[in-house]
Description:
single chain; about 375 residues; alpha/beta; 16 helices; globular
Amino acid sequence: MTNVEPVVIVDEIKTSCNDFTIGRLTLNKPKALNALDLTMADIMLNALQQWQSRNDVVAVVIDAEGEKAFCAGGDIVSMYQSMVEAKGKIPPFLETFFKTEYTLDYTIHNYSKPIIVWGSGIVMGGGMGLLCGASHRVVTETSRLAMPEITIGLYPDVGGSYFLPRLPGKSGLFLGLTGGQMNGTDALYVGLADALVASTQKHNLLSALTEYSWNKTDDTSLAASVSTIINALEKPNTLPIGNVEPNMSFINDLCSHSSVSEIVNAILSADMKDNKWFLRGQSTLAKGSPITMHLVYEQCVKGADMTLADCFRMEADMSCRCGEIGEFQEGVRALLIDKDMSPNWKYKTVDDVPQDVIEHFFHSPWSEENHPLVQL
């Protein structure tokens, strides 16, 4: 019998004084770049719910095995298989997966104790869902953050409807449309990270949390203690050069048009020969799903005025509709199944997508009282 490694290592670290405990969740699928599957989400949610009610647990750390990625997304191969079997209906697996993942993300956003996410390496898609809601979001010089769902015919979910429209200016809309990558400096600038430290500092963080003289008076004091510990960690010798801030006026100009068609066409026709970061995003958008272009625009418009819980409920509707309509299935096929990198999108350009097709994504498959996320 071979020992099967757990997909998430659940650990409890006793502090050196006052009998307090640090909870630790370590994503443990490094060969799959720690992509979040249903089992992993279940384990994490259960552990967080148990620690929430325990007085001895003062903080939680979420990190990952391997240097390359914190979490590079979700388990879209399993989603693909469920979509193939469902033949144009909403796959039950998708409903279960998104219910669990979004409940996990919502729990992190609303956790009463500090949660530190060590977002080193690749942080994309589902990884962004884990990072964005944490009270202490730590990035390093190796961090690469993105929401690249436009390449697979999905859209920036995991709370993207909430956090993208709240980024500076029009940067959230631009990053959602182009799958633009952010480094640690960018993440700090847009407000998706709280600290940028050297990637060698994780052991020091865990040691400092263990050795700290915890004094649990209230949740605010716990958060301040964690901030003190993180602020004492070493910074990288060289800080990454940001791309979002230097391009902000350009981003705002391109994304200030009154329709998604005008915005997409403005980005695609912009002449930025010497700007590698912009050209990469422009190329991603050009190859991306025209349906997704509309979904990104609509989610940013709607989500700007919605609560976090309502954003997650809307995303459950949208994600299950994505599983039903075939665009998401085709995007995953082209990227990960056949790997031909030539998705056959339902519509050739952003201008071709009928409005009633987009409206269908926002029409919930469930009544209000039967919604899978009614409890949020």
